[in-house]
Amino acid sequence: xxxxxxxxxxxxxxxEGKTAQLRGALRMLNRVDVAQYLSGLDTDKMLLxxxxxxxxxxxxxxxxxxxxxxxxxxFSIGDREISRLIDDMFIDDAVDFLEDMPQDLVTRVLxxxxxxxxxTINRFLKYPENSAGSIMTVEYCAFPGRLTVDEAMDxxxxxxxxxxxxxxxxxxxENGILTGTVPLRKLICASEDATLSSIMExxxxxxxxxxxxxxxAATVQKYDLLAVPVTDREGxxxxxxxxxxxxxxxxxxxxEDIEMMSALTPSDDTYLNxxxxxxxxxxxxxxxxxxxxxxxxxxIISHYEGLLSGAALVGVALTxxxxxxxxxxxxxxxxxxxxxxxxxxxxxxxPSDALKVLWKESRVALLVSVVLALVCFGIQYLLFARPLxxxxxxxxxxxxxxxxxxxxxxxxxxxxxxxxxxxxxxxTPLITTMADTCSLLILFAIASAALL
Amino acid sequence: xxxxxxxxxxxxxxxEGKTAQLRGALRMLNRVDVAQYLSGLDTDKMLLxxxxxxxxxxxxxxxxxxxxxxxxxxFSIGDREISRLIDDMFIDDAVDFLEDMPQDLVTRVLxxxxxxxxxTINRFLKYPENSAGSIMTVEYCAFPGRLTVDEAMDxxxxxxxxxxxxxxxxxxxENGILTGTVPLRKLICASEDATLSSIMExxxxxxxxxxxxxxxAATVQKYDLLAVPVTDREGxxxxxxxxxxxxxxxxxxxxEDIEMMSALTPSDDTYLNxxxxxxxxxxxxxxxxxxxxxxxxxxIISHYEGLLSGAALVGVALTxxxxxxxxxxxxxxxxxxxxxxxxxxxxxxxPSDALKVLWKESRVALLVSVVLALVCFGIQYLLFARPLxxxxxxxxxxxxxxxxxxxxxxxxxxxxxxxxxxxxxxxTPLITTMADTCSLLILFAIASAALL
Lengths: 452, 452
Fold this sequence. Notes:
Two copies of one chain form a homodimer.
Chain A: H1 3-15, H2 19-27, H3 31-39, H4 43-52, H5 55-64, H6 67-76, H7 79-88, H8 91-99, H9 103-112, H10 115-125, H11 132-135, E1 142-144, H12 149-159, E2 168-172, E3 178-183, H13 184-189, H14 196-199, E4 207-208, H15 213-222, E5 227-231, E6 237-242, H16 243-261, H17 276-303, H18 305-309, H19 312-345, H20 354-383, H21 388-418, H22 428-451
Parallel strand pairs in A: 1-2, 4-5
Antiparallel strand pairs in A: 2-3, 5-6
Helix pairs in contact in A: 3-5, 5-7, 8-10, 15-16, 17-22, 19-21, 19-22, 20-21, 21-22
């Protein structure tokens, strides 16, 4: 059954007021799908349907709704309902939600949740943005190492269903310091009276609350973890970060990189949710900078005015090939910088590989530039019947411009990384402006020497 | 202790022949780090160190080594060692490894593993590349629904340690059809004589062996799953795909998108591992196509030769602003297409949103183009003291070129998606070529009308 059929059947039950049927039908859907269905309803209907949900899934569904819908919902329901909803949510989801809400709503929500939840949420809201602390969850199982397998199992039975993940147990000492991990399957397979200390794994990976979330994502990916424990300055365990949250981080960081590589200021929101003014603000500064940078190309062309308006055939040939040469230089630079930026992002190369990159790009550039120069020669000499000397100048400039752009494109991102800047910044705006300017300079330098 | 210190200490023990110490030190490292250490050694030493590893972790370490090292290792060790190594690996890791190896090595490996492993590997090697079947693992726990919680726990204790993940149990009927799922924490918290059927969740998400892996990744991300069951044509459960493998898929697909957006043929291998000829092969065709496409810009410029070489001041002004206008058009188009391509990739917008995109891009383009035209006017009229009429022509062309490029950049990726093509293809090569050509045409059309 496809999604359109599902929604039309649900809408029909809703329109006919068959709430019992609707309630039953909603129980057959995944919580993510229920949230998607609610997003398509207007506020009154959404509220009605939301109240039909069994309380066991209401908080989950709420986690998957979008901000606008959640804000409307919170404003429409009573204090007691708010309290139940937020208390039942996983802390990290509740914090995510509150971070994006207006202050009066946050105050109202915090006034209505249990003191425990309020304390935890407040602690979370204090972690710096993009830190490990701000994306971790506190719903995990940590036990002292002296507990036996049997005791730990009893404890899990008592509290486990409320935890976001119990796939790994964390073993802590009397000061709360993390000392080892026990995968749940190992716990199940161990003999009942073994202590956790005796079966725990002591080689484990952990991160710090203040670590940057991008660094945490790299660690989790490197070690293929499903969850990573988070410790505070004193080594005490304070939370875990699960792989599904890491996945979101990776997607967001990648989007940021891609946007920067296309000369856009990265935006936190989705395209359709971003307002016109924000879109303009994210695009205009870069375009204006590049426009101003093109003063250089204009200046260069004006400077060599004599060359362009001199002998008719030569001038026209040179003018006509300017866009071709500049485009090719820019494209070549972009190709190289893209490969290097992505390799830096996935941790495959480091600034210390600069020599390897230089050597590789030089050889690739030589091969590529010679072939492109031949194609260029064919187009200019055979197709457009340009004079031989002008054609040779253009093709020679092509070789140098491609070599220069590719080597620069390979090295600029490494330089940025070494200086602690974001390599993605060196992509389109910087590399194409530099490649453009230098391609022109090369052309005119060779043309002046050979044709005047 | 940083990584350089770790390796230098290990190297010292290795050089001094203190194998017992080295063995102890290796046990203190994460398996991923051991693999990284091995990758830095030459073949003889690598083999020596690898043989020091406890057999319980050797297969895991092997999974994390790079292809070149693994090939060398397999060629250097005996048949019995191969057999133990591969039999101990998770099937999906073993298949990944064999897919990238030369045929003679695959034959030798398959001749030495147990018949069960061989059958499974052979079955896997038959799934189409990029299908769900090719990335799934068969190490999961599936039980009939009539089993009680107690019986299931006993079964897990008997076999669980060999499974890649037992965080979720899968419930199947007598035909192997997947009927429900039981999270392990629910199993632990349930009463011992309840049957799996009575506690299983019947609303679950599954994928098909032949589904494209990109589609599987989208499903797993949408529903925030840690693992997804895979079923065959008859609905029988045949494997699971875990989130860490999905993460790899997402990273690879993103790299592909980014490379295509920069006019590169996507490569499966890492930058440093890709040979010169492959790098040339991935870059040259696109550069050549764009070079040939620039015949159009050359033709347009030649066609309007009269305009450029006519009145001296007009000709120079127009010539000097050609690169500026073309660059701005290309940059604007790239910004818009990047936003849309990324939003399509993350599933945030669909081709059916074309009208919304058109409306949004038009308004953004109007605002952006007016500001850019003013900047352009300032540069040309005030800074370069160009004639007023020429400056007005250039600024007016700027507005139209930006509007055109932004709207085109917004709609082209949606069109590609609707036609079943990869939207990333419409980025740099196509959009900049079209934006370049049209920006020039707009400039010359306005200039001819206004200045001749």
